[in-house]
Amino acid sequence: MKTAALLVGLLLAGSTGCATAPHIRVVVEGTGTTDHLTYTFPGEEERTLRNPALPFERMGARKGRVAIRLEGVQGELTCKIIINGRQVKTATSSTGAALACDHSMAV
């Protein structure tokens, strides 16, 4: 369903002469674990996962604010926000510390 919505959005952007939508990836990787992983893409509701499987990766394609937050980190984890193949934000945390990556794009 998300893939269909993404394709429709890309087709509409192309047909109206607007710039193409950005290709956004959020990634969490490392040797650790986390109790809670919360992420937000523009135009979508915030989602929280408990004890998520890692590595974690999600994609989106709308301009706005992208955020990912991890709480209850055990071991070392790194979050990244990658837009159109370019890493725009990264942060690394070790045991016990919270971790967050946040990036805003003009709409």
Task: Give the topology.
Layout: H1 2-15, E1 24-30, E2 36-40, E3 47-50, E4 56-60, E5 65-71, E6 77-83, E7 86-93, E8 99-104
Low-confidence stretches: 3-17
Question: Helix proportion of residues, in percent?
Answer: 10-25%
> Structural class, please?
mainly beta
The spatial strand order of the largest sheet comes to 4-1-6-7
Beta-strand segment tally:
8
The tally of structural domains comes to: 1
CATH architecture classification: Sandwich
Question: Secondary-structure element order, as H and E?
Answer: HEEEEEEEE
| Strand content bin | over 45%
Largest sheet report: 4 strands, antiparallel
End-to-end C-alpha gap: 24 Å
Describe the structure.
The protein is mainly beta. It has a single domain (21-104), classed as Immunoglobulin-like, CATH 2.60.40. Helices cover 13% and strands 46% of the residues. It has one helix at residues 2-15; strands at 24-30, 36-40, 47-50, 56-60, 65-71, 77-83, 86-93, 99-104. Strands 4-1-6-7 form a four-stranded antiparallel sheet, with no helix packed on it. It has a four-stranded antiparallel sheet with strand order 3-2-5-8, with no helix packed on it.
